[in-house]
Amino acid sequence: MTIYLEEEGDLKLPVDTETLAREAAEAALDEIGCPYEAEVNLLLTMNGQIREMNREFRNIDRATDVLSFPMIEYETPGEFDFLEDRPDCFDPETGRLLLGDIVISKEKVLSQAEEYGHAPRREYAFLVVHSILHLSGYDHMEEEERREMEALQEKILEKLQILR
Prior knowledge:
4 strands; globular; alpha/beta; 4-stranded mixed β-sheet
């Protein structure tokens, strides 16, 4: 798993953001059976910047905790077989699967960790896992999808021993 990490703003999270993102992403991809080495772009930013992106891309004028921008459209969540016929989904130099981009608000990591009564490490790992699932075709718009995604998230975090 390759994470290309960029960070904006002076606020620093009290975790090793790159290592934890890689561990969480790898655990998520292992759990759903991704057969490829993958890469993701990860931007850690502030509420103001994520609010602008949320407004631009989702027409929602407020800060959010995480945005996911998948490079691939999946018919079935976590089903990677069709990619064998899609060389455009892979980096031509490295051969890694291009999953997409993740944007996380550092301020939301801290405020939601406090709100939910757990460590910033847990909140950050949760947001990475959540977004990796989105980049792999999972969603939570329908009740059944939401239950499946939530169960996967909890299972992955338990395997990482990152508990509430």
